[in-house]
Amino acid sequence: MTKPATINPLAATALRSNGALSATTIATPTSDKSGARVKVPPNKVVPIIFIPGIMGSNLRQSRQRQQAMHKKDNIAWRPDRKGFLWDTSNAPAGYRQQLLDPATTEVDIYEPDKEAQGAGETADQRHDNVKIDCASPWLQNDPATAPKPRTAIQKARARGWGEVMFDSYGKAINWLEDAMHNMLQGGQAQSHWPDVIGVAPTEWGRSNGFPSQILSTDQLRKLARAWFPVHAMGYNWLHSNGESGKVLAQRIEALMQNYRDRKFRCDKVIVVTHSMGGLVARALVHPKYGNFADKVLGVVHGAMPTIGAPAAYKRMKAGFEGVVAARILGSDGERVTAVLAHSPGGLELLPTGAYGNGWLKITNAQGKVLKTLPERGDPYAEIYQQAGVWWNLINPRWLNPAGVNAPPGGFFLEVNQRLTAVKAFHADLQGYFHPNTLATFCDDPKRESFGSVEWRLEGKAAVGNVDVLKVHKDDGQGKIVFATGPVAEAPLYNPWGGSGMDLTAKLQRPNAPGDETVPTRSAEAVGGGALRQTGYDHQNSYKNAATLHATLYAVAQLALKWEDL
Question: Which of 343, 511, 523, 547 could form a disulfide with 441 if both were Cys (CB 3.0 to 4.6 A apart)?
């Protein structure tokens, strides 16, 4: 067959729901002998599933909660939208408690066939955060003559791209979609592959058991035998990560079945995660939760708090770091506690028993250690579930700023029961990873992280047993003023005069290498090969060039393990 001299750009491949492949173009006069190029995907499909971190999935409220809060829309969490950020910035603790209630929220999934309840927006208006910055042949506008034509953006939204915080993850999603569908042309590597093919992985970081093999052009040809569509899947990060793992197993199975219904072979996926999404992915493949390991070729973790992060404790005592993050996520302990104390997912980010002893420290003004916790490898009983001591995790006064009806036994008892479940979840995940696990993390001494949390006592009063100190005032931002006596009604008596408030505890700055959120101590506990990197903060890890190169390399290595390529 003679190759046509010109190609009609209006041709397209329609992947119909009934499984048929059909090409649509515009009729031309018989004198026009130009051909129409039709892009046909390979029969083998390996979806890449991107799972974001905590607060990286968009949530919506139930109609009942929206009405009770007198809100004009049902948005519970959508950080890409400036209007939402403005409304939420510095919102009081009670508002946050009701807005982000695990019982009244769900993932804001793209549903083009119906208007989201109470939103007053179409699905396309709601998922307006998606941007396509790649040359994927599968994300192109359909010709107007196609049955039910869809735009490229609508196709991306249907893949879940609008479910996640696009500002943080859009670059990585586009990067993978572009690279996995523009591999070779004329025998030469295309798109982002020239920066990966023939390059030693140590160019992107220090190996911690990470593969050392250099990818070749021949291996790229092998990868080109399959189709690797990139999907994003949000989850309700207020729920337990174990529960989210079960839900994602069902969603991924339905996705794979959808491809099979369209006559593609689809029996494996590759999972890429960020932060808490790594815990969700570990639950996804765990036999007790998602039990999905045999359908996953492998998992690529980025910036995972493998055994928890002391920053989770710090934030429930003193709020988030950084001016912008604090305004949006919670500037003090009360605002954070009002949400995360009721959130199993948030509590599961606390240091696990495997994190070890002594990460919570109380020192005097000279830096002498007066007390360290945990002492027996049980942070749940020794710190999180403690009552009546100022250094514990939960301030009972911050649990119910909205003034809703308390559960039987009260909120503190309910949180303690939740923490018992967190302990069990941590135990289930301890040491459990998909057998094909690769990871990247930041081990940067300039990105100081809370490897431990230190309360420093300052003042003239002598301190014996730090446990008996009573709180006079807690500003929720890392400063506690103490009182004496059985109740905290008066400041500590100061015989030397002055204000009398002469004994305080202040949280000290972070002092461990990491990514400003996850310390190296936790990130390096990942099972499998990992790359130690530098130069980025936690939330923006997937905007870092070295991380993107390493992730693409890792996806390729995992894909090549598929025996049916």
Answer: 523
